[in-house]
């Protein structure tokens, strides 16, 4: 049985973004503070710092000082909107937004819809994304650091 009093969640279904890039972004933000995750995505949108690719990097050029990396702008916009919605969900539940930690960030393949074109139709990539945050307690961190 889970304690839902100290957690908030958001789910985006059928988002028109690349599932591979959304998986990479979810790997990057999982386990981070909500404010730092939003800052990472803001840096990607302004093209200040790319996201390093640990998979899906065949024949991909390196970025300075980091190895294979990309700026997934479209996926970052959508996930940033989800994080802002998640922050408002947490505030509505009465959670402190400075202590929110992303514990679950999952991206899955969604249905491939048809897109009409001049010559023939094509399939469009879509992704399902689920993000959950929990409110971490400062006392538990202090006890763990003492041991």
**Secondary-structure element pattern, one letter each:** EHHEEEHEEEEH
Overall strand count: 8
List unreliable stretches of 5+ residues.
none
Q: Predict the CATH topology.
A: Ribosomal Protein L22, Chain A
Strand order of the largest sheet: 1-8-5
Determine the mean pLDDT: 91
Strand content: 25-35%
- Please write the CATH class name: Alpha Beta
- Shape, principal axes of CA atoms: globular
- Name given to the CATH homologous superfamily: Ribosomal protein L22/L17
Radius of gyration: 18 Å
Distance from first to last alpha carbon = 28 Å
CATH architecture title: Alpha-Beta Complex
Number of helices: 4
- Structural class by SSE content: alpha+beta
Structural domain count: 1
Largest sheet: 3 strands, antiparallel
Range of helix content: 25-40%
Q: Topology, please?
A:
Blueprint: E1 7-15, H1 19-29, H2 34-45, E2 51-52, E3 62-63, E4 67-70, H3 73-93, E5 100-109, E6 113-115, E7 122-124, E8 127-135, H4 138-146
Antiparallel strand pairs: 1-8, 2-4, 3-4, 5-8, 6-7
Helix pairs in contact: 2-3
